[in-house]
Amino acid sequence: MWGTLSIVNDAAFGGAYDALTEAVKARALDQARHVPWRRLAEAVDEANNWEVFNLWLRAVADASGRIPPAVERELETRIPGLLAQHHSEIQTASMRGALAYWLWNLVGTWVTVNLFLEPKLQGWLDAIPFFLSKSLPYMKAWAHWEQVSKEWRINPPAEWPTFDQWQNDIAAVTDLPNADTAAQAALNAVCSVSAGRWERILSMFLDLIAFSHWMQLVLDSEGPSSRLVLDSIRSRYQGFRFSTSDLSSTEAVGQLNIWVIQREIGGDRDDLLEALSWHAQRHPRYYAVDSYALHCRDAWLTYRPDPLPCLSDWQKAADTHTC
């Protein structure tokens, strides 16, 4: 469905690869501004779930040369009537030895047309594969598919895995195809802590980014003694104190960030901090909050809200902001 993004490489495009990558990124981020980040994140998760399912179909069909009954039943449950509608094409694809690839494209096309029509009509469809292809769950799904495809060509399993087993196997992936990459380093760090702790510190980190944007905006407007900022810090980050009262907004935000990160993940886990940064910069919320902060900075030059928004109001506005 979105698979081309994961297999494009610089060898395929030569020197134009970097330019192509930047153009794709610019287009995706521009489209992402047209939709609230939570809606985009939901669409990315849905796209990943379908990609995981579609890769399962492709792997089993490729290794078996057919569509086993269990796979057919699962597909019929999800997309009733699809196989019956394309019966003759299935036979043709099977005779040509292209069943797996044809099925993968068929399901991917159906999903895009039927489940992602809203993003297409509203102008943010390209943002979905961009964020999807940058995510660790997507990379793990493709890594698992590539591995089992190689193994099954030589030694197919006595029984094909159920879709539930397939999802569990993907969740257990610890090695990506290119071990010497930032993505693998991020995966190593994620695997070094419990799933619950990782979700907690990632949520903390994204919240800290949003808080930092709001904090700097208010400090730049009200100065270092802003009661709004000091009260929010006292409520949210109990125990934190600035080193002095005459810090610039950038210095104040920096001190708070260092304190929170050391308290939450410790000073000896640079790998976790790098993994948090890696994930945050691939999340729709990161760009949405940054975009809204820039919007506020420009807007407040001509009209400064009075009173300035509290953190919760500012976050709500950032969550729903579109351009």
What is the typical, i.e. mean, pLDDT?
93
Counted beta strands: 0
For the record, give the distance between the C-alpha atoms at the N and C termini, rounded to a whole number.
28 Å
> Secondary-structure element sequence?
HHHHHHHHHHHHHHHHHHH
Number of helices: 19
List low-confidence stretches.
3-13
Structural class: mainly alpha
- Label the overall shape: elongated
Descriptive report:
By secondary structure, the protein is mainly alpha-helical. It has 2 domains: 4-177, no CATH class; 195-320, no CATH class. The chain has helices at residues 4-7, 10-13, 17-32, 37-64, 69-78, 82-85, 87-95, 99-115, 117-122, 127-133, 136-154, 163-171, 182-191, 195-222, 227-236, 249-265, 270-280, 284-302, 311-320. The longest helix is centred in the N-terminal third of the chain and has 28 residues, at 37-64. The two termini are 28 Å apart. The relative contact order is 0.11.
Short characterization:
The chain has helices spanning 4-7, 10-13, 17-32, 37-64, 69-78, 82-85, 87-95, 99-115, 117-122, 127-133, 136-154, 163-171, 182-191, 195-222, 227-236, 249-265, 270-280, 284-302, 311-320. The protein is mainly α and 323 residues long. Helix 7 runs antiparallel to helix 8 (99-115), helix 14 packs antiparallel against helix 16 (249-265) and helix 14 (195-222) packs parallel to helix 18 (284-302).
